[in-house]
Write a structure and sequence with these properties.
Blueprint lengths: L4 H29 L2 E2 L12 E2 L3 H16 L3 H23 L3 H17 L6 E3 L6 E3 L2 H21 L6 H19 L3 H21 L8 H15 L9 H11 L1 H16 L12 H7 L4 H23 L3 H20 L12 H14 L1
Antiparallel strand pairs: 1-2, 3-4
Helix pairs in contact: 1-2, 1-7, 2-3, 2-7, 2-8, 3-4, 3-8, 4-5, 5-8, 5-10, 6-7, 6-8, 6-9, 6-12, 7-8, 9-12, 12-13
């Protein structure tokens, strides 16, 4: 597949417009079918019932655009089948709240569906020698399933603040698509542009203050799409796009997911146990509001995207330098929450003067 600006930006705009057009409809449908997020605990960031059927808009943007522009591509149609099933699982979860184990089994089944249809990670570059490390059938299946399920859940777990998952997914998809374009993998670039367009079309309705949530149907679909489209057959000859680039671009949510697993293991809790210890929650406790916290996370994701691009071009010093910047930024944001109640706009001196004036009046 070759690619011109129209071939890439056309599908992007169609996905964006479709998602933006369907989002208001999903808001109207949500209360009628019971797809409402009611704040029942302190973990919730909202104080009133919110529609959580916005995944419908993202789904429509992705699926309709793929049908219009890539209905003849066997691999894309195979992945689209997986997207339909993962979305269906998410819809049931949004309506009925599935048990975590049932959701996991469903995700594994969708990943196996990709593997059966030939969408799989067959080898990685052998960095210790020449050539590639070829996986056997069992290893190939396990690695593919673990990769797809891990990315799906990484995006799902960061869906805790208004606009965070949609914006981060859009940034990630655009960066992966750009690296794929550099390496001549135009089918992957096309698919990532579609995912980014659908996410950005939904974002205005989800950014703080949100009018709707995407729900598990939306967050799982975004994670699954990014994972699946990055391992299409056209990319198998370029391991950098398959695993390393998505891992770098999604570095923050992946690391956040790993930390959540470690944290819950040490506390002897289930991996599915919800808490308020994710990065976005801790940034909020550092004194930032939802909007600023989300924008900070966007910045970190964008920097990681640049790291991925530099890595793909072989600029070792540059990408290592930016990684160090990201590490310092994350440390600053997360290391100290003791001053969360300090009014940074004010000054202690005026307050002291005001107190002295009040005392003199008494």
């Amino acid at each position: 597949m070759t690619a011109t600006s129209i071939d890439l930006w056309g599908p992007f705009l169609v996905a964006l417009v479709v998602a933006a057009a369907v989002a208001p409809l999903s808001i109207k449908i949500a209360p009628k079918i019971g797809a409402m997020d009611i704040p029942k605990d302190e973990r919730r960031m909202h104080s009133k019932a919110m529609p959580r059927f916005g995944g419908m808009a993202i789904f429509a943007g992705v699926i309709i655009t793929l049908i219009l522009f890539a209905h003849g591509d066997k691999e894309i149609m195979s992945i689209m089948t997986g997207c339909i099933f993962i979305y269906a699982i998410g819809v049931v979860d949004d309506l009925k709240t599935l048990k975590p184990m049932i959701k996991l089994v469903g995700q594994i089944a969708c990943a196996l569906l990709l593997y059966v249809q030939g969408i799989k990670i067959e080898f990685v570059t052998n960095y210790l020698g020449d050539g590639n490390m070829i996986f056997g059938d069992v290893a190939c299946m396990l690695i593919t399933v673990i990769w797809v399920v891990a990315i799906t859940n990484a995006v799902n777990l960061i869906d805790g603040l208004d606009g965070l998952a949609a914006g981060t997914s859009a940034i990630s998809a655009l960066c992966i698509g750009y690296v794929a374009y550099i390496h001549g993998q135009y089918t992957t670039t096309f698919a990532m542009m579609v995912v980014a367009g659908a996410a950005l079309g939904f974002l205005p309705f989800n950014f703080h203050p949100a009018k709707t949530f995407m729900g598990d149907s939306g967050s799982q679909l975004l994670g699954f799409s990014i994972a699946a489209f990055s391992i299409m057959g056209a990319v198998k000859s370029t391991t950098i796009v398959v695993v390393i680039i998505p891992a770098l671009v999604l570095g923050l949510p992946i690391f956040d997911t790993l930390m959540a697993i470690v944290r819950r293991t040490m506390r002897r809790q289930s991996f599915a146990t919800a808490d308020k210890e994710h990065f976005h929650h801790r940034i909020m406790r550092a004194g930032y509001g939802q909007k600023r916290s989300v924008m900070l996370m966007y910045c970190v994701s964008a920097i990681m995207g640049i790291v991925a691009v530099l890595y793909s071009r072989g600029y070792t010093v540059e990408y290592l330098g930016l990684l160090a910047v990201v590490a310092m930024l994350v440390y600053v944001l997360l290391s100290d929450t003791s001053n969360r109640n300090v009014n940074v706009r004010g000054s202690k001196i005026p307050n002291e003067r005001r107190e002295n004036k009040e005392k003199s009046r008494d």
